[in-house]
Amino acid sequence: QKEVEQDPGPLSVPEGAIVSLNCTYSNSAFQYFMWYRQYSRKGPELLMYTYSSGNKEDGRFTAQVDKSSKYISLFIRDSQPSDSATYLCAMTMNTGFQKLVFGTGTRLLVSP
Amino acid sequence: GAVVSQHPSWVICKSGTSVKIECRSLDFQATTMFWYRQFPKQSLMLMATSNEGSKATYEQGVEKDKFLINHASLTLSTLTVTSAHPEDSSFYICSASFGNTGELFFGEGSRLTVL
Fold this sequence. Notes:
The structure holds 2 protein chains of 2 kinds.
Chain A: E1 4-5, E2 11-14, E3 19-25, E4 32-38, E5 45-50, E6 54-58, E7 61-66, E8 71-76, E9 85-92, E10 101-102, E11 106-111
Parallel strand pairs in A: 2-11
Antiparallel strand pairs in A: 1-3, 3-8, 4-5, 4-9, 6-7, 7-8, 9-10, 9-11
Chain B: E1 4-7, E2 10-13, E3 19-25, E4 32-38, E5 45-51, E6 57-58, E7 67-73, E8 76-81, E9 90-98, E10 103-106, E11 110-114
Parallel strand pairs in B: 2-11
Antiparallel strand pairs in B: 1-3, 3-8, 4-5, 4-9, 5-6, 7-8, 9-10, 9-11
């Protein structure tokens, strides 16, 4: 079993839709959770970083962590074509960004 | 945000040859850099942690004699794939740790194809 499971997609939605991206994990020692966005031929860039269970909001993005279910989500409101990218979840047991364990990434396509 | 540059973006080589990939932090000094590998339809997997001026720390299952890492300055780490074979064909990506939070900034990746 992989430590982090993420549906690779692609996930296709129309512009303006609410997008839900999810990851599940098996290691209860993971404490820090991140979402990265990766455009084609670019490196991943950090979108959201959370520590505790609950929600964290940043503009159109909301990260949700449920440690009891070992489940994290990223919601994108009012999705735009420019949101089309691959979204990777990542997590670690350590403070900071050491030894990240990544999901496979979900490819999101937002059509105009 | 901080910028990390990786070179080359893609490389094709013959089996048995060695390939060097460079990772540079352009506008900050990075005492720690990380090297990842990604096979098709799989996750980014951490290969090694590179610390400036000291030996790299390799993850379990990664051959240190095959994947030579040098972090000779605060802005440059190199990964050399020695005696490359087709199974080493993969996407290699580096990241550098920045600032007090240690947030990672990633390079654009290098796609290696070994014929």
